[in-house]
Amino acid sequence: MRCPFCTKINNKVIDSRLSKDGHQIRRRRECANCSRRFTTYESVEDIPIMIIKKDGCRQLYIREKLRNGMLRACEKREVSINAMDEFIDELERDLKESEKKEISSREIGERVMTKLQKLDDVAYVRFASVYREFKDINDFFSELKGLLSDK
């Protein structure tokens, strides 16, 4: 492990423990060269999950892409980042526990919209407008009518 301060490789582990979520090992290290301390996390490498896009192509699942989409939808709304991260953690756990190694983007999008609808209606409509590719104001009105009729 390279020291993030001096970039030397020589360091020692001072402390090891499970992270809060219990899925990683947190290691506290001290550089033998500059004596500064830093933290590393060790986790099991998972088999990658492939996303089948609308056009049929396959892409590697990237957590940050999903998180960024949710962050944009929730921008300036009272939705906590912790709530989004917990949802993404739960989604990833479900994906890993299922036997499927490929999942459609449609299934992930629908699950995100279901969650956002519970968290914040405005964030839900924002996400839906991009995900469902609204073409004009009528698409927005249709979605809002459906949202209002559910309440």
Structure description:
There is one protein chain. The chain folds into 2 domains: 11-42; 50-150, no CATH class. 45% of the residues lie in helices and 20% in strands. It is built from 5 helices and 6 strands, in the order βββββααβααα. The protein has helices at residues 63-73, 81-97, 105-119, 121-131, 137-150, and strands spanning 11-18, 25-31, 37-42, 50-52, 58-60, 102-104. The strands form 2 sheets. The chain has a 3-stranded antiparallel sheet, with no helix packed on it. The chain has a 3-stranded mixed sheet with strand order 5-4-6. Helix 1 (63-73) runs antiparallel to helix 2 (81-97) and helix 3 packs antiparallel against helix 4. The longest helix is centred in the middle third of the chain and has 17 residues, at 81-97. It is elongated.
